[in-house]
Design goal:
The structure is a homodimer. The first copy, chain A, is of the alpha+beta class. The first copy, chain A, contains six helices and eight strands; from the N terminus they run H-E-E-E-H-E-H-E-E-E-E-H-H-H. In chain A, strands 1-2-3-8-7-4 form a six-stranded antiparallel beta barrel. In chain A, strand 7 and strand 8 form a beta hairpin. The first copy, chain A, is elongated. The two termini of chain A are about 45 Å apart. The relative contact order of chain A is 0.16. Chains A and B meet through helix 1, helix 3, helix 4, helix 5 and helix 6 of A and helix 1, helix 3, helix 4, helix 5 and helix 6 of B.
């Protein structure tokens, strides 16, 4: 699905915690394979919005990938609760952490009908409804539908589209988590210390964060990266080193 | 000033982008020393809220410290604009990036007055007003007043109190930036990769982020850290290494 990175779309998605680049969310699905006491699964992942395409990049061997090979919908839960992140990365979240939202999909279906003189077709609207798990403790959520699924040896790419937006708690506007933006803050801190101390160990941190900004950042984060790269060359020149 | 970390205070401050632990903001002040074309100064810094005390920890030789030794107020600007962060860390922001808000302070003053028979005292309310610079492009701001200032060899600690809250743009609830929370996300990523690859270089990243969570994180971030530490021990035991 094409979701163009227009100003309007960017603002709308931002309001729900998703930006261009890679947005960190906790993905919840039904468990495709029945587990006795675990109906639902939660795991952190990045929603990728690049070149006007929204997609997931999933690694084989993960529960999320296994579920999404058969499930059609998932929820992207937006939260700044570190405990939910840490727990859902490494452990199963108990079902008590989940509630569900109903997603209805109307499809037009052409059904052949028999009349006295000839066979005609009648268009009927069919409604399919499904309960999708979300995290009770999240601030907001976006329900996504899975479109085309492309498999290679180790990974699966799933194109997705947002179909439903929801707010669980009012007090927070939905925290947008982008590791690229976060890395701008960190790179500023490390570069300030490098400038002061000339300690080359900071360079490893700086390069690590530059890489993250490039990979995960939004347009504005990459503009920030350009300023930081320029400044780093200036610092190196002031130090008399090869830039 | 004592600002207790009660649920009510935490929620209120969170709504304006400040949390317990260390909140990253861009601090703006008037320039204490007149510069021909630079009335205002902006620089990123962390607002520290620990043990019910709100304070700044400033290093000598910085513009921010020099200004706050004489200025009484500053603004904490909350923004997720990476360009503002990168620019204000290393360069002067032009005055066109600033606007100002008026802070009024009413003080009760006892003035001696002369009457025919005796000298009496009359309490009058005096209003002092001052324009404090903020960043036009920020989402929200909090104006703080500087209270006691404590100097040591290299650093200055300034106790502060919030006196005015403002919203510049409606579309975003005021992004709370906490490097401790951000480090929970990063530590989860590095630990997942470490678990999969057993590559010990991830351990350096993991320890770096554990340290940041401990230093900057909120209560919930530190609870997340405890889960991550437990999981790291489990991974090391699974690897057969000394935890």
């Amino acid at each position: 699905m094409v979701l163009e990175e227009t100003k309007e779309n960017l603002e709308k998605m931002k309001g729900y915690g998703i930006s261009e680049g890679i947005s960190e969310i906790i993905l919840t699905t039904k468990n495709a394979i029945d587990k006795p006491e675990k109906k639902y699964n939660a795991a952190p992942i990045g929603i990728i919005w690049k070149n006007n395409k929204l997609f997931l990049h999933l690694f084989k061997g993960t529960n999320t990938r296994r579920n999404l090979m058969t499930e059609e919908y998932f929820a992207a839960n937006i939260t700044d609760d570190a405990v939910l992140y840490a727990t859902s990365t490494f452990y199963d979240l108990e079902d008590e952490h989940f509630s569900t939202v109903l997603v209805e999909e109307k499809t037009a279906a052409n059904k052949p009908i028999a009349t006295s003189s000839k066979t005609a077709a009648e268009t009927t609207i069919e409604t399919a409804a499904e309960n999708i798990p979300i995290l009770k403790e999240a601030n907001r959520y976006v329900i996504f539908k899975c479109l085309s699924k492309t498999e290679s040896d180790d990974t699966t790419i799933i194109d997705i589209e947002p179909v439903l937006f929801g707010k669980i708690r009012d007090e927070d506007g939905g925290k947008l988590i982008n590791r690229g933006f976060n890395s701008v803050i960190d790179a500023c801190v490390h570069m300030t210390r490098y400038e002061k101390t000339k300690n080359p160990t900071y360079i490893d941190h700086i390069r690590h964060h530059f890489n993250l900004i490039h990979r995960c950042g939004r347009k504005r984060d990459k503009e920030g990266l350009a300023i930081l790269k320029k400044r780093l060359i200036e610092i190196e020149l002031e130090n008399g080193a090869e830039p």
